[in-house]
Amino acid sequence: MTHTVLTRLVAAAALLAVALMFALFVVKTVNHQRRRWQGVRRAHYVAAIGEILSRGAIPAKDLESWAADPIFHEVLVEYIGIVAGSEGETLEDLVDSLGLRLHMTRRLRRARTSLARAAAAALLARVATPTEEQVLIEALHDQAAEVRIEAARGLARLGSWQVAVQVLDQMTREQPWVAARLADRLVEFGKKAVPVMVEALGTNDLPHETAILTVRVLGLIGDTSAGPILAALLSSDDPEMRVAAASALGTAGGPDETPVLERALHDPNWPVRARAAASLGKHGSPASVQPLVGAITDDVWWVRQNAAESLAALPGGVAALVDIATGTDAYARDAALLHLGLSGSIRRARDRVDGGTPRPDDDRLLAVVDLAAELEGAS
Amino acid sequence: MILAIASIAVLVYSALIQVQILVVNLLSGIQLRRNRLATRFGRLEDLLSSDLAPPVSIIVPAYNEEAGIVEAVRSMTMLRYPRFEIVVVNDGSKDGTLEALIGRFRMQPVTMPHRNEITTAPIRQVYRSTLPVSVTLVDKENGGRADALNAGTNVARSPYVLLTDADVVLDGECLLRVMRHVVEDRVRTVAVGGNVRPVNGCTVKSGRVTETRLATGWLELVQVLEYIRSFIGSRPGWSRLRGMVLISGAFGLYRRDVLAEAGGLTKGHLGEDLDLTMRIHRMLSDRGEDYRIVYAPDAVAWTEVPSTRKVLRTQRIRWHRGLMRATADFWPMLGRPRYGSLGMVAWPAFLAFEFLAPIVEFVGYLALPWALLTGHLDPEMALLLIGLALSIGMINSLVALFMDEAFGYFDRPLDAAKLLLVVLAENFGIRQQTVLWRIRALFGGKSTRGWGDMQRRGVANLTG
Questions:
Q1: Distance to chain A for B365, nearest Cα, Å
Q2: Is the pTM of this model over 0.80?
Q3: A178 and A210 in contact (C-beta within 8 Å)?
Q4: Which of A123, A134, A209, A316 is least surrounded by CB atoms within 10 angstroms?
Q5: DSSP 3-state assignment of B457?
Q6: Residue B59 is inside which H or E element, if any?
């Protein structure tokens, strides 16, 4: 009995192995030819679209077969990403003449596989007009994450701020990685979406992760109208939120928020202090030099580094760094010397001295550098 | 009677191994399909342009790498990723490695403070390139590969570090592909392993693999199949089960703070990558943290595999010695629910089918003929069980090759035929030889304790 079962099992396994070997050989050979053929088609489309762009006109011959070819779609997406102006208009004409928008709209609504819907969404996201807005809004709720993300890309391209609310709303229901990708799309809405996000943050209704992402997006857009809400969030009880707000204020904070960032240099949480130090460098206010000189003696390496880097970028900051480099705090001195070097201050000072046009602090700076080098050699 | 039971036990064990591999293969298939969808629609391009992409430090240890280090670093500077720095650690080289790097990248000494979170051999000097590439050179006293990587981790300025080797050829997009997993779950992802493939036979130009071809040597061909089975057939499945036991030392990305907190790589450990992965699991699980260690099958690093029996022997003995030490160190994690699927499934399976496999197989080679000769075992039954194990083994290899087909390597008809030949013939000769080497590793002795001389041809010599 056991023998019979085992014999059949072995025979089945051996047969399967032989069948798989044959199938693998066939699949590999076919794929090899298919990849070569795809390469040929790709080259053909690249050349053909290139010629269409250079002539600025669509050929009269029937191009309908192109509309259904995924390789053409891929090439078209790549071209759309790199052309502008009149060439962009020619591509628009090509999309029109092929009826691609209608083709993709149908596929996005009807295709059964997520791969096909995602491919349709990816192309439609780049060629959609306001007519396709509704289908993209529907696709924001597709079961495949890729389709939702591509839909958000298309909506960001169309750019109506009312839709930004829906993207933000969708972020609250997503897994972290999908939410992060939707956040990237929110950045593409630009300044138009800022009031929507400021309002959402003001209601305190956003889930924690979404709120953090929204603050980051505000920082990436860099519109100073978000400054007051970000300044308010800098006094949040949540350290993660304070870190995000301190970062975002570097680009989305105006002069009114500079004092808030200076106060954040004394935050009990060091990442907040480090981010605040970095953000102050972006504000460019000479009044921040003194608070940053204090921060360069911080216990934490990152805070000292960021403070030194910001000082190197501020008016009057290099002189402060030279003072620190001659001081007694070895940690602050290291940070100051490193950023005097990285910012090019040491090289420029040496060039000026060598060229006979030194500035008042140049000799002092170079003396400190030489001394540091000597100490380094001695140790 | 005992002989008969032992023989049947060995044969049943062999069949069980193959069934376990088959199950993991199927899980890998599901994971690879998901991964394909994830990488197809612009996630990588988005990452490239996203300000949310965290910076990465690539740590490259270098000991007497004068011939190839400049080319290796130069090719790394051209990786596609928005923000990264390269930290080369000259581990007390006796040749001109240091001078070659200083000259080519116009390095200047900097008084760069670094955190000694992991204790290492003393650092002599830190240099930074004055060219518009972010390359830092750490010159330190010799302490071995692990020590050099630890020193690089101390000096690294980014929140994520990629540990690799100077003789590894990285694919242009590998950094984007590993970091995708971090960006998608930044809070929980602490480490990501990459896919290591044999570079033997491939064409390398300007530090990049430009044409993938199979090697001609039999030993190299067998290793190509082994790597595909491991990195395509097995790891995606274990990653899906949250049971990644090992991130390969040739290409692994870690969150810097977690790596430093775990104490970095263990100096002198022969399986330092396995040891590090398991220590991170233990540390974070003991603290009850929700974390994930994942695998990126599309992030490819190419490495030279041994082409001679002598070097392969040294490597396999070293691997098994490393596994033995890890088995002793992490034995208590076995079957503990606290360690989740790692403690309950992955680690027990790893030990049962990796650590014990050579012992059981060796016993089988002794017991089976003896039992057959003395009439204690029915020859027909023995043949059937051997046939079953071999057939399922071949099916497993073929399934892995099918899954690998999606990546588009080795698809010329001649390459396909070569791989099929290896599938058929690898069970005879080299397999038994490997079992003997691993048994040799069990008994220890001077020849099994060190890293040995790996005698690679070097990527520089493959460069076209």
A1: 21
A2: no
A3: no
A4: A134
A5: coil
A6: strand B56-62
